[in-house]
UniProtKB/TrEMBL annotation:
It comes from Kiritimatiella glycovorans. A probable RNA chaperone. Forms a complex with KhpB which binds to cellular RNA and controls its expression. Plays a role in peptidoglycan (PG) homeostasis and cell length regulation. It holds the Pfam family KH_KhpA-B. GO terms for cellular component: cytoplasm. It comes from the Bacteria. One of its GO terms (molecular function) is RNA binding. This is RNA-binding protein KhpA.
Amino acid sequence: MKDLIENLARALVDHPDDVSLTEIDGEKTVIYELRCNKEDIGKLIGRNGKTVGAMRTLLSTLAAKKGRRVMLEVVE
């Protein structure tokens, strides 16, 4: 799942080398903190949060199949 998030984020931004992802693994929940260049934050979030919302929906669906929860946070 981590690779999926990184690949999606890198495909969306202008500075793909600045994308980094931190995984915080809990018992039933995994938190991903996504960082990127400040110029690219708007591209990751999208208009009204639609882009990051779509990414969260996809991740939640994949995680539910494994009986887990996933949270994706875009961090400045």
